[in-house]
Design goal:
Shape: flat
Number of strands: 6
Helix content: 55-70%
Distance between the termini: 91 Å
Oligomer: single chain
Strand order of the largest sheet: 1-6
Largest sheet: 2 strands, antiparallel
Number of helices: 7
Order of helices and strands: HEHEEHEEEHHHH
Structural class: mainly alpha
Number of domains: 2
């Protein structure tokens, strides 16, 4: 298409494959989608290997304290745990070596530069919405009993994740705790952990 001056452009923009310049302009204006961020597979592999190595080292140290040799009446107490711990350390070291080799530069780029994610931050937040209340539930059982803790947990999930109103969530939690109490404590005569509320009611 001629310019205002009437002169033809010397080098009209062309795509590498010969496509029209409009395709280039369209590609330049496409929004850039950010790559998801989170914990990479390599990071989890390294952390897991270090955890197994620490467990193996602890087993070796304790086995040496107990005695990891061969006594007059056979193997000492730490004989088999020592070798198991040693195998754990060697396996973890071999895994770390493989990870280091895979991450070495090759052709000017890291070989594992585009390694897949093990867990994105969005996925981690989703897991935390279930994991954190569950941990709190287990930790609260020795203090307030299983039934009260279960009622609170059910009410929390219904309110937070289910989007139910507060009366419906509390009603479902209390109903769950009462039904569980009747089934286990009265019908099956199975004593489950109880707290101050059950003691106040005479159970």
């Amino acid at each position: 298409m001629p310019l205002v001056t009437g002169e033809e452009p010397r080098h009209p923009p062309r795509a590498p494959d010969g496509a029209a310049s409009g395709a280039i302009a369209l590609e330049m204006h496409l929004p850039q989608v950010a790559a998801p961020r989170g914990v990479g597979v390599r990071t989890v592999e390294v952390a897991t290997s270090l955890g197994f190595m620490a467990a193996g080292a602890a087993a070796i140290a304790d086995s040496l304290r107990l005695g990891a040799g061969w006594g007059a009446d056979g193997p000492q107490s730490g004989y088999f745990p020592f070798w198991i711990g040693l195998l754990l350390v060697l396996a973890a070291a071999a895994n770390l070596t493989g990870i280091a080799i895979a991450a070495r530069p090759r052709g000017g780029e890291l070989r594992g530069r585009a390694a897949p994610l093990f867990l994105s931050w969005d996925q981690a937040r989703t897991v935390a919405t279930v994991f954190v209340p569950t941990v709190a539930y287990v930790a609260a059982i020795p203090f307030i009993g299983l039934y009260v803790a279960s009622a609170l947990l059910v009410a929390w999930f219904m309110r937070r994740l289910g989007g139910f109103g507060l009366p419906a969530a509390l009603g479902a939690g209390v109903t769950t705790a009462v039904v569980t109490f009747v089934v286990f404590e009265i019908w099956f005569l199975v004593a489950l952990p109880k707290g101050p509320l059950e003691e106040f009611l005479g159970y």
